[in-house]
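Lecture notes, unit on protein representations.

Consider one protein chain, 396 amino acids long.
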Amino acid sequence: MSPLQISAYTATCAVGVGKEALADALAQSRSGLRANDFGDAPLPTWIGRVEGVEDVRLPEPLAQWDCRNNRLAWMGLQADGFVEAVAAAREKYGASRIALVLGTSTASIGETELAYTRLDAQGMFPPEQRRAAVHTPHSLAMFAQQLLGISGPSETISTACSSSAKVFASAERLIRLGLADAAVVGGADTLCGSVLFGFNSLELVSSEPCRPFDAARKGISLGEAAGFALVERVQTGTDAAPLHLLGYGEASDAHHMSTPHPEGLGAERALDEALARAGLAPEAIDYINMHGTASQKNDEVEGALVARRFPARTHASSTKGFMGHTLGAAGIVEAVISLLAIERGLMPGTVNTHTLDEGFGPQIRLEPARGEVRYALSNSFGFGGNNCSLVFGKAA
């Protein structure tokens, strides 16, 4: 495929707001996980909660969209000059030529949960919660479109944990087909009762900080995050950006609602497609951001896949131990980490993990490392076999 440049990018998660906070945590192997304090009866688990979400007050023109998910999106969009970068693109291309593709798995369901706890005598939402658009999966995209002042094609992608990775694939198609000149991609997901108790009912939640690929791993730690990127055709001269999206691969193996294919067939197909579109062999990849949730099956399948497909020198890690599994926002946050690895030569380690499972190869590293990262691969493997791999690289 023809590369797309990443003109701006940002992420906000449990380790802080924006790229600098994230890069510092990755360099210091500092986890943002904490004992669960979410809800009236917190589950005995650990979470990646973003500080300050409750304190956000949306400006009056956007007040109709108020909910926890959109507040977190607001925080994320204000970081790293991202809103200003989109404004410059809007001036360059026109508002109708900038697409918006966002991923989320819960959207504003936390607000809907709250509304159901306040039903009146007739069983209706209270007046302040009768905001139909807020209680829909497209709430995040409608909010972001108004905030950014763009009016091109708008999509919400909800494919579980791969949601905000697949946004890059959709954006590439929109731009290649001439439906847009640039696209804002990303996603946001926040903690809520449905998420915490839902994953707990599947017996996937750990009672301690998650330990990806550890021999004694006990499950996932849930988190929340918002991340965004501005992608456009590769420019020349002063408008050229040094970071590019080189390839993507998607596959749906549909093996099971919540368990990956035992041989990782869908995951491997997505990986192969991403490398093929980028025109690269596995040996070219310097860093892999693995999906690495710390669940028994996910780590078993992905660990085996990386071990058989990549040379021992490849530096691979899971960053779930820094901010938790941020659900529909996981893909964009880990894409941002991959971009930081290329931009800064920083390959993160795998925090909280002590002893790697014997079934995994030497590619998985516990400690961070420095060195040139020419190409990075980011894996996002979701429920239902919704798999996506992304390849990022430096401009030629």
